[in-house]
Amino acid sequence: MNVKLHESTGERWFKGFNILFLILVGLVCAFPFYYVVVVSFTTPNEFRQGGLLLFPKSWALLSYEYILSTKAFVKAAGVSGYLAIVGTLASLAVTSTLAYGLSRKRLKGRKLLMMAILFTTLFNPGIIPGYLIVKNLGMINHLSSLIIPVLTSGWYVLLMKGFFDSVPASLEEAARIDGCNDVSVWFRIILPLSLPSLAAFGLFYAVGYWNTFFNAVLFINDHEKWPLQILLQNLLIDSSTSMGVNTVETGLQEIPSETKKMAAVVISTLPILLVYPFLQKHFAKGAMVGSVKE
């Protein structure tokens, strides 16, 4: 029997106020990015007129043509793409295998290793010790210095371990009865079940690698190996930078530096915005749904 509850007038007013408030908060949060997009598509003449641009009278791709035609930007985007792909895959491999090992009670020294990982989430060695380790390992000015020091996160390992703890031991026991060894159990049973969690953590890792900035400032001296965020920083600091391109030859020398900056920000943000909708559903999806039947 379905019982329909009627909302009081006060409850309806409260719900309406909450909806209106959340809409206003959403608009406030979205407006800066909207303004960046609008300015990036604005023609030079309209931008020079000044004022707040809410919608351009005419749309132009001059800033994007300039940004995408520069060798430095293409190289930096390639470096960031390499870090996001290779770094994310390596981090997921290390994090998932370590978390799975810790979730198995038969692992010797499991509690001691857990305490060591927990210690890393509470205490940070600092910038100077980290730099000295990277230097002594010979990774200065090498892209590995942007991956290996942040290869995994103690917090992510503990979260993923909690997921593996929820995997019924009967699944692993059944696989072993069928003749599977540890590697087969991992690839044929555990890995397929953990795809939703891997997708969620993979997005976190990918965003971190794509937005690599501070470590690149510390460890990368060669501008040919700069990731995208370092190039954008230099573009923002030096608004007259040509990013390695002769503006006279391109015929785009009249483009305001502000519209070029906005176009660079949009291009650097776009990949993550395109990837997120495909992975967002995995955040709420239960990894064990349908895996075990009574």
UniProtKB/TrEMBL annotation:
GO biological process annotation, one example: transmembrane transport
Listed InterPro entries: MetI-like, MetI-like_sf
The entry's keywords: Cell membrane, Membrane, Transmembrane, Transmembrane helix, Transport
Entry's localization field: Cell membrane
Domain ABC transmembrane type-1: residue ranges: 77-279
Record-linked CDD domains: TM_PBP2
Pfam families the UniProt entry points to: BPD_transp_1
Main location: membrane
GO CC terms of this entry: plasma membrane
Membrane-spanning ranges: 20-38, 79-100, 112-134, 146-164, 185-207, 262-279
Membrane topology recorded in Swiss-Prot or TrEMBL: Multi-pass membrane protein
Assigned protein family: Belongs to the binding-protein-dependent transport system permease family.
Protein's name according to its UniProt entry: Carbohydrate ABC transporter permease
